[in-house]
Specification:
Number of helices of chain A: 10
Oligomer: heterodimer
Helix content of chain A: over 70%
Largest interface: A-B, 45 and 30 residues
CATH architecture of chain A: Orthogonal Bundle
Shape of chain B: elongated
Number of domains of chain B: 3
Order of helices and strands of chain B: HHHHHHEEEE
CATH class of chain A: Mainly Alpha
Number of strands of chain B: 4
CATH superfamily of chain A: Winged helix-like DNA-binding domain superfamily/Winged helix DNA-binding domain
Number of domains of chain A: 1
Strand content of chain B: 5-15%
Number of helices of chain B: 6
Order of helices and strands of chain A: HHHHHHHHHH
Chain lengths: 169, 188
């Protein structure tokens, strides 16, 4: 299947985009699969105003942002309900930034990232880990380029402040 | 020389190569003289390396297969299903027969869709319109319309009563139980 070639080519980055927004590996993988399914269904609607990759990342980002909003809206669980729900939570192996948490350094960075707002975290991960340009981030997250710049500036300085000792080392 | 507060806003974009040429030049000039901003820039670089080294995308074993399986379960769009059906017909009965069957199906569909209009059209054309004229028979000139003339016709009967007032007319639609009488607005 020709579409399989596109999946192979873009899967890593699509998962990366989803991960940058939702911060959970299992959810990111699921959302990435959904991204490709949606893209397959909407191929006829793709207009070459933006590149295929940007279009694909935008689908991933939209799905991930919607997912995150739904997660936020879910009411907090209490008492027995919470206990039973906790038993269903995946093991830490499937949690976000698993590889990062394997080391103390990784744990520090994961913790620092958690202190950022989701918007700042998404922007800095899309830039530093996924290597997207400012225009691509602007297109994918559907916010002005200036907003991307200011969010990156804030996120970098905040991380620099939190990880001050690491940067000095 | 630009202030550190102004330059610090551009440092990240400088590192990313996302500034305009004149801005790149300005930041580079500032960095050559400012240790504080140079240190900040170095920290940004370190931070980027740390992030790239520690935030790892999960293993993608069987990811492509999972996507292919999900796509395989999707219902194809109507146009694709039609094309496949036509292809199957062509394979089974030969291309010409398949085409003929498809055309017949299309014609049948057209007839079914157009039937109400056609029926309506025939009904209109069959409707017999009888114009009965009558010479003036009395001083008033008004007498019952000659319904008997067209009583065997289910359609419209138009009876124009030509009296001393030739504008007076009666229109009768027995099938709809309707009668309309026209009279002139003004008598001259």
């Amino acid at each position: 299947m020709a579409f399989g070639v596109l999946v192979e080519r873009y899967q890593r980055r699509v998962v990366g985009v989803a991960l940058a927004v939702v911060h959970n590996q299992d959810d990111a993988l699921e959302l990435a699969q959904e991204t490709f399914v949606r893209a397959f269904e909407s191929l006829g609607k793709f207009e070459s105003r933006s590149s295929f990759s940007t279009w694909l990342y935008r689908i991933a980002a939209n799905l991930s942002i919607d997912f995150r909003r739904r997660e936020i809206r879910r009411p907090a669980l209490r008492g027995e309900e919470a206990d039973s729900e906790l038993q269903r939570v995946p093991s830490p192996i499937g949690d976000s930034f698993t590889a990062a948490q394997r080391s103390e350094l990784g744990e520090r960075i994961a913790e620092a990232l958690r202190q950022l707002t989701p918007e700042h975290r998404a922007v800095i991960l899309l830039r530093e880990v996924e290597g997207l340009s400012y225009d691509e981030i602007s297109d994918v997250l559907q916010c002005p380029r200036g907003t991307v710049m200011s969010r990156l500036h804030y996120a970098r300085n905040r991380l620099r402040e939190i990880l001050k000792d690491l940067a000095e080392d | 020389m630009a202030q550190c507060s102004e330059i610090s806003l551009l440092l990240g974009a400088f590192e990313d190569g996302e500034l305009e040429p004149h801005e790149m030049q300005e930041v580079a000039r500032h960095l050559a003289r400012c240790d504080t901003c140079e240190k900040a820039l170095a920290d940004y670089g370190t931070l980027a390396r740390l992030l790239r080294g520690t935030v790892v995308v999960p293993a993608l074993n069987n990811f492509g297969d999972a996507v292919r399986e999900r796509i395989g379960h999707l219902r194809p769009p109507l146009t694709t299903r039609m094309r496949r059906w036509l292809d199957a017909l062509g394979e089974r009965f030969g291309a010409a027969t398949g085409f003929a069957v498809a055309m017949t199906a299309a014609a049948a569909l057209t007839i079914v869709l157009a039937t109400p209009f056609v029926r309506d059209m025939f009904r209109t054309s069959r409707r017999d319109v009888t114009i009965a004229s009558r010479e003036n028979g009395g001083p008033t000139g008004i007498s019952p319309p000659p319904a008997t003339v067209a009583s065997n016709e289910p359609g419209t009967i138009i009876s124009r009563l030509e009296t001393s007032n030739p504008d007076v007319a009666v229109w009768s639609e027995p099938s709809q139980d309707t009668t309309v009488i026209w009279l002139p607005d003004q008598q001259r």
